[in-house]
Amino acid sequence: KVGWYNAVLQPAFHLPYPDDTLAFVVLSTPSMFDKALKPFVNKERLKLIRDPVDQCVSCHLSRVKEKFPDQKVDVIFDYEILPSRKPKFLAQTAAHVAGAAYYYQRKDVKLDPWGKKKIYGVCIHPKYGGWFAIRALLLFPDIQVPFLDQSAPVDCVSTEEKRIELLEQFNFHWQDGHYRDIIEVKERYSEEQKAYFATPPAERFRLLGLKSREAHFTE
User: Fold this and answer.
1) Is residue 187 within 8 Å of residue 31, measured between CB atoms?
2) Which of 72, 113, 132, 160 has a C-alpha 20 to 30 A away from that of 140?
3) What is the pTM of this model?
């Protein structure tokens, strides 16, 4: 429910919907690359003008909206920002309150070793570890679910030592991706997929066999 999200954030980040409004957090799993992105690129290569992943996600969510012709469905993508430059929604907070992935933050560590350093939090999925992405929020403004029970996310990094290791790896060594394997995972990105996401956005067209275009790219 939107109210679960708004309850843990400052008013500046609240979603402008009643508390009981139904919402879904959309994640992409490791298999998205082969099952969704590559087929999409092969089919739409002449129409790709910005980031292929963003366009692929947008295409699939448009199909979801078509499945509900009698319902109003609002979509907010993870890369969208407000005129104030704030994100339209805080993806990791949304994933946590939806029970999709646990958002580990500095406050989850009792003996804080970082002093005045800025420490960013990170979501870990109980099946995919850090090998997933939060892509969008689907909102159904006309559907109110007052009796929906909230499910807590799985606390899969449960020890103090592991939480410190996770936040250390994510904040200071995120490029090597070791934080993604903080738990034993069922599935991870393929080598091809790792190479794709490790490549600067403007150069990713080349990896997919596409000509680079001047456009707006997102991570």
Assistant:
1) yes
2) 132
3) 0.91
The token duo for 190 is: 């393929």
Instruction: Give the residue extent of every domain in the chain.
Output: 2-193
SS (H, E, C) 55-120: HHHHHHHHHHHHCCCCCCCEEEECCCECCCCCECCCHHHHHHHCCCCEEECHHHCCCCCCCCCCCC
pLDDT at 204 (0 to 100): 83
Model confidence over 129-183: pLDDT tens digits? 999 999 999 999 999 999 999 999 999 999 999 999 999 999 999 989 999 999 9
The radius of gyration of the chain's CA atoms, rounded to the nearest angstrom, is 18
Contact 23, 145 (CB under 8 A): no
Provide the 8-state DSSP code for 199: S
Contacts of 37 (CB under 8 A, 6+ apart): 52, 53, 56
Let me know: does 126 contact 184? Beta carbons within 8 Å.
no
Secondary structure element (H or E) that encloses residue 124, with its range: strand 122-124
Q: For 20-72, what is each residue's pLDDT tens digit?
A: 999 999 999 999 999 999 999 988 877 767 789 999 999 999 999 999 999 99
Element (H, E) at 191: helix 191-198
